[in-house]
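thread: overnight batch results

M.L. [08:02]
morning all. the overnight job finished for the chain we discussed friday. pasting input first so we're all looking at the same thing
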Amino acid sequence: MLSAIGGFSAILCARLIKEHTRAVRQCVLMIDNICILLQYSGISVEEIFKNLSLSSNYCLLLFIKEINKRLGALIEYEKAYNDVISEKTFTKYLDSEDCDFMRGFLSMLGKSDLSGQLMNCKMYSEFFKGKLNSLEKSENNKCKSAVALVLGVTLTAIILIL
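M.L. [08:03]
and the structure it wrote out:
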């Protein structure tokens, strides 16, 4: 019984690591897409979130649709993103460091000229790319360990049954 719990825990841990990695990958994609929208469309923050919320590329970034919803209800942008990023319901796939950096990125959106906003996008994109690289390495190591643990637990259980 205890071995089954250990195996289940290993599988759950591996899954959480994979979801965190996917969420950070989606943060990179989101920031890069915002950069493109700013550079070639010159659209407002409200229009950016409307466009992002229509995409299926950000299924783990639940805060995007919620920010769009709150902006649609005429809630001030700064209050909308601060409140949403602070609610774990909308950021459950990100860790606290990710949320702090996302809050920093969103705080600068729409607050400077185009070159300043593009520089902001580049800076935060680089942070999330570095984090993604680190997570991918960690994911490979931890998931291999989880598979080995589950395999070991299974073999132990089979031996004990026989």
